[in-house]
Write a structure and sequence with these properties.
Mean pLDDT: 97
Strand content: 5-15%
Structural class: alpha/beta
Shape: globular
Distance between the termini: 49 Å
CATH superfamily of the largest domain: Type I PLP-dependent aspartate aminotransferase-like (Major domain)
Low-confidence stretches: none
Radius of gyration: 21 Å
Number of strands: 13
Order of helices and strands: HEHHEHEHEEEHEHEHEEHHHEHEEH
CATH topology of the largest domain: Aspartate Aminotransferase, domain 2
Helix content: 40-55%
Number of helices: 13
Bound molecules: 4'-deoxy-4'-aminopyridoxal-5'-phosphate
Number of domains: 2
Strand order of the largest sheet: 2-10-9-8-7-3-4
CATH architecture of the largest domain: 3-Layer(aba) Sandwich
Length: 389
Amino acid sequence: MFDALHPQPDDPLLALIGLYKTDDRKGKVDLGVGVYRDEQGATPIFRAVKAAERRLLETQESKAYVGPEGDPVFLDRLWELTAGSAGRGLATAAVQTPGGSGALRLAADLIVRAGGRKIWLGVPTWPNHASIFKAAGLEIATYPFFDVPSQAVLFESMADALAKAAPGDAVLLHASCHNPTGGAIAPEQWKELTEIIESRGLLPLIDIAYQGFGKGIEEDAAGLRMLITRVPEALVAVSCSKSFGLYRERTGAIYAVAASDKIASIARSNLALIARVSYSMPPDHGAAVVSTILGDDTLKADWISELSSMRGRITSIRDKLAAGMSRRWQSLTAVAGQEGMFSLLPLEEADVLALRANHAIYMPTSGRINIAGLKSAEVDAVIEKFLTL
Ligand code: PMP
């Protein structure tokens, strides 16, 4: 039967990692990677994560199943971190998931079970969004989000497109730190979006995968917090992969905000069923680590401090990059004001390939760069190489 299968394309980012690894040129630079890197080029384990792991090793007494919904204490603590006071008192269904991707897939399956047929995605967005929603059977519609040459967020066009969406359509929004553009929605624009979503009867699905990497832990969730208190229903997909550096531990959660406790409880039972028939139960370790950190003032303070210094490093590289690159691309002054790990450079595919061939600078042909892939000491040299284009 397997003869009937068609080969599927490799993930271009994974292929890029392979190419980078086999390049033995000195001073090669990897801007393609999707994880945080420090000044040494490492993706460190947070100090608070190590401490929580040590504590868990000593105190955990069982590896018995956690149940399809996961650990309610983890879910409460993560919701408090994500939604803050805005989340308190809302009727909410919560299910622990294998990472943010798992949360998005559960959200998609829930939308389909509830009779939803279409989801609106920004152009561009993280490529896996469309793949996940299509796999769940949703139709994809798009709204303009970002213009690469001018580096502008196309808020007017986005609002116009969403104003034409049909009631019951879902709309995916990035809470902050947009992947791949870094483009941010201003607070007053969140208000306008909320009004459109409310008046059109749309279902917002907010993807929050980089909380703390943009302006701050609270600031990065501010739009989401405003939105969930004003609309009758919302879905929030949380990833702990970046914010806690737990990538491979597959840690996340899906929250469904509903109009009543009764409806939230039905939504919860549906999410749990979807989990049960997909992978049965979520992995525990990463969630136990997050729960331990968020439940302990000292560990939490240390986590916040380490996350702040990562954010500071990204911000300072953004400033340097914007100053240098804008000598050649005026619009790239915007890189300084963008948020999170990614920016999308206005490069042709030929430019990307030339940087790779001539200077061992690696990035996908889309021109997306991971700011954290740069070390402060090498930024100037890397800018000079871009300026040869
Ligand atoms: N949403 C966005 C925007 C992302 O960039 C990512 C990871 N690259 C995710 C969700 C999912 O993250 P994970 O499944 O690793 O938690």
